[in-house]
Amino acid sequence: METRDSHYWPLYGLRITTPRLELRVPDVALLDALAAVAADGVHDPAEMPFSFPWTDGTPEERGRSTFQHVLRTVAEWSPEKWTLSLAVLCDGRVVGRQDMVTSDYAVTREGETGSWLGMAHQGKGIGTEMRAAVLHLAFEGLGARAMTTGAMTDNRRSIAVSRKCGYRPDGETVLAVRGEARTLRRMRLDRAGWEAHRTVPVEVHGLEPCRELFGLPRESAPFRGTG
């Protein structure tokens, strides 16, 4: 699935690649494929791994909300507050989504990651590889100081991925989800932890034209491109 780079929205030209994966901001055609993966299901309906139950509803509603949400991240983007929502492709096929969310990044140099995979693509190590990709973008490409994430305490797969990438516990928060109290485990990764746990080769392409959208001047934090 090819997309043309956009002069006015250079994020469409951003590519992050690993041995198996490509992550990129989806154009409409790719977004339709991503919505279809969401519609097919991302977890057992009896469970709810997310703090906001966006997966409740019919497959049609799930696909449409995914489509609208990703479009909204583009429409509401500003250098002071942004959500980078990336489609994840494995062998050219859309399998899930990887996000990085932040506010005032130019000052804090911190962000939060979130992701999901279609049920058919889970248990294959893709979650670890896509997390490694976005962490490489954050630390190597955007000069991050630290990254955070969170998972329900019973979401063992997500917590295992975070630990494998070097995150450390950062406290817990009780949330109301589906009318029940759920405990969210926060986790934090600093630059030293990331460097000590890097195992996946990652390359980033097309970052330079995007730097100002991320709130960073082009001449800051030189980017080396591979790792």
TrEMBL record:
It holds the Pfam family Acetyltransf_3. InterPro entries: Acyl_CoA_acyltransferase (IPR016181), GNAT_dom (IPR000182), Ribosomal_N-acetyltransferase (IPR051908). Residues 21-192 form the N-acetyltransferase domain. Signal peptide: none annotated. One of its GO terms (molecular function) is protein-N-terminal-alanine acetyltransferase activity. PROSITE patterns: GNAT. It comes from the Bacteria. GO terms for cellular component: cytoplasm. This is N-acetyltransferase.
